[in-house]
Every structure is written in C-alpha cells, then in structure tokens.
Amino acid sequence: MSATSVRTRRPAVLLLCCVALLTACGSSGGGTAVLRADPVTVPPADPARTAATAAATGAFGLDLLHTLTADPGAAGRNLVLSPSGLATVLAMVLPGARGATAEELAGALHTELTPEQYALATGALNRPGAPAGQDGPVLRQSDDLWAQQGYPIDRHYLGVLAAAFGTGVHTADFGKDPEGARKAVNGVVEKATEGRIKNLFGPGQINRGTRLALTDALYLKADWAEPFTAAKSADRPFHRLDGTGSAVPTMAQTTRLRYAEGSGGILGEPWQAVELRYAGSTLAMDLVVPAQGGFEAFRKGLDQAELDRILGSLTERTVDLTLPKFHFDTANELTPALQALGVKAAFGAAADLSGIPGPGADGALAISTVVQKATVQVDEQGTVAAVGSGVGMDVMAAPAPANPVELHIDRPFLFLIRDTATGRPLFLGQVTDPAAR
To answer: What is the CA radius of gyration of the chain?
Structure first.
C-alpha cells in the first residue's frame, strides 16, 4: 500500500515524526545545529498527568483505528499505526496552536491539560526509564527542529519544545535547494528506522516554500522474554474475514503467560487475550482474539475502558499458543481521520497556529496534510516495527501443567505494543491475513 500524495502549496511548513521498533537512530544529517533554545521554566510533568496522557494516547489510537477501518474497503486489511508517534508530533504542534485550533487538537488527543503540560507529559512518556540490562531492549529517542535559514520561530515555542523534548534547531536551505533539504530530512527518518521507512516525503513534498521540519525518532530492539523455537513453527490454517482460509507460517509454544478470556458484556462477543513480554523490560505485545466471525463487531465496540478491562484481567496461566508470523506495511493519509475526530479549524483558513512563527514571518499557518507510514514484523525472536508520521503546514497568504489453556490464533486478531509500566501505546493494529504484505 502506498501513501496518498501530500498536497503541495507554497509557501509550506512540513513537520514529521518517525518512530522505529528495532533499529537505530539519531537526529543528525544534512543540517547544522544553529540554535538550542533555553527550556522555558515550567513545572515538570507530574505522575498523574503522565498517566492521564498515556491513557489519552490509548484512546486516541483506538479512535484512529475505528476511523481508519470504517470504510468497508479498509476494514478487512492488515493495519498498523502508532498512536504514540502521531500524538508526539501533535504534541509538538499543540503549544503553537491557539483558540479553536488548540481546543480541537486537545479534544482529539483526549487531553484537558494545557498545551505546555501535554507536551511535557508526552515528552516524559517518551523518555526511557532505567537503562535495560544486557538482555533487555535498546531504546533511544531524539527530537529536532529543522528551519529555513532566516525563518523566525517564536522563542517561547522553542523553549517549550526544548523543555519537553530536548529539541534543538538545525538549518536547511529549502528555498535554494529543496531537493537537498528533502534528502537530508528523509535521511534522518531512514537512519532512525534502519532503512525501513524510506522517502517519507516524496519529490515536491518539501519545496521552495517549506519553512520547518520537525522530527522525532525512536528506536527499539526487542526480543521476546520467551522466544519461540523455530523447530516448532509450521504452516497452520488461518481463517480470513471473508471465510476463506490458507496455511500460513505459524509459531507455537506452551509456556506460562498472562492470559484472559471473556464473553458478553459491552462487546457482546467472546474473546481471548494473551500478553507476550519482551526480555529485560516492561514492554509487551498484547494479542486480543475475538471468536471466529466476531472480529468486526468486537473491533467496532472496543473502547479504551473495555481494553483496560481486558488488559486488567490478564492473569498468569499456562498457554498452548500458536501465533502466525506476520510482516506488512501500512500507509495512510490521516487528514480525513483527524477531521472526523473533530480537528477541523487547523486545516483551513480559520487555523490559528500563531504561536509557532516569530515576528516577521510571512503569513498564517494551517495544517494541510497528516500522513503516517508504518511497518511491523513478528517472528520467533521478537518484533521489528517502524513508523514515520508527517504533518504539513501551509502559509495561507516455565514447565507446563498437564492441561494448559489453548489459544490457537487461526483467525483475525488485534495487537498492541505498549509499556506496561506507563500504559504508553507504541503500536496498535489488526492482522486479518498474515500472508498479505
């Protein structure tokens, strides 16, 4: 699946966010650091605000999942998105928003915090905790702001980004060499995702009118705490939403895992859930598997409260588990989805992002496009995933017991990669056909 083309207007401001699960990053590439704003003096994010922001990001992610799968053509396809990635880039935009623009963005993000508080809480969630041990994942994150040479940016806005995300400013000459600047910005994304997200912005999408490019990069290498044995993997049946089936490469293990099952209630559909932890960390992948024939009704009825109830009911059991290996890509133009979630003023002449440009900037800004491109791969060893998110702005003017519980995942299912300590959702998606790319 390819990304919808980004509309090009002049002059334009482009902001992007890229998140990678399994490989390397850094925020160097093609620009020269010319400014690191002093962080504004604001109270640090307190635990209650951070926890509320993690929950809000989860609700935002489910809203996106529901909106993106509302179209019958998309409902039956594999999907992966990053609630955390998109929430982070919008958290970087929000301190510059005013009036209805800020209110609608905050509403879509499910936050009642001020823009500064939300940015600080998001930045706190993005910072890793104590370094992992030798067998744990490697997790790094960095944020940078690229600016057209001479383009004025509000100092307080820069200070908020510095306080929340450690963001500095690099220059690029979008006006004279937009293609060179595009390659430099894309190079940061590609390096941050170990080459898995290439050319996030295509030719012409960074142009002579571009003024800013905001980047966030996260990388993680994560192995299962209980790896699957390759010798136990085999082709096993998988039943798609349309009733057809085929044999797909499927892993198998019987071990102690956190497991839950239920039926009825708000969702009305039977389900099973299991949690696969990553070694040496609080990160985990949760799999939620509705009964055959109940996937679509279950997905439509799932909200954050019900997901919290499911995850809260997980208890340790011995599980006879089979899980298809999967590897696929997703690309979405998210402007319609955000507009459906109530973010409308930011995309038109009524947009008020006046907190971003400094004195002398050439006109008012409005968001013109929001795009996300992601990939996920799950195998016997662990998980690899990467995502790039972009926002464009135009200037308008153990031993098993004898009877383990059985969960053979041979039908469509949902997955969530999260930090179980904070609740921060990194990736959310559905698998309807493990063999599809």
So the answer is: 22
| Cα dihedral 258, 263, 264, 268 sign | positive
Q: Which CATH class is domain 230-325+399-431?
A: mainly beta
Burial class (CB in 10 A: 0-12, 13-18, 19+), 354: middle
Burial class (CB in 10 A: 0-12, 13-18, 19+), 193: buried
- Smallest Cα–Cα separation from 304: which of 80, 122, 54, 112? 54
Is pLDDT larger for residue 160 or for residue 26? 160
pLDDT beyond 60 at 291: yes
Condensed to tens digits (0 to 9), the pLDDT of residues 103-147 reads 999 999 999 999 999 999 999 998 865 444 456 777 766 677 777
The full DSSP string for 114-146 is -HHHHHHHHHHHHS--SPP-TTS-EEEEEEEEE
Strands 364-378, 425-431: pairing kind? unpaired
CA–CA separation, 102 vs 99, rounded Å?
6
Cα–Cα distance between 388 and 20 in angstroms, integer? Answer: 8
Q: Do domains 12-223+327-396 and 230-325+399-431 have the same CATH topology?
A: no
Determine the Cα angle at 7 with ends 21 and 102, to 5°: 70
Question: CA neighbours within 13 Å on the CB side: how many for 343?
Answer: 29
| Helices within 133-192 (DSSP H only) | 155-165, 178-192
Q: What is the pLDDT of residue 250?
A: 97
Q: Is the pLDDT of residue 5 over 50?
A: no
Domain extent listing, the chain = 12-223+327-396, 230-325+399-431
Alpha carbons 257 and 284: distance in angstroms, whole number: 11
- Residue 340, exposed/middle/buried by CB under 10 A (0-12, 13-18, 19+)? middle
What tokens appear for 139 in the block?
């997790």
For 12-223+327-396, CATH gives: 3.30.497.10
254 vs 72, which has greater pLDDT?
254
285 pLDDT higher than 80: yes
**Positive or negative torsion for Cα 309, 423, 405, 234:** positive
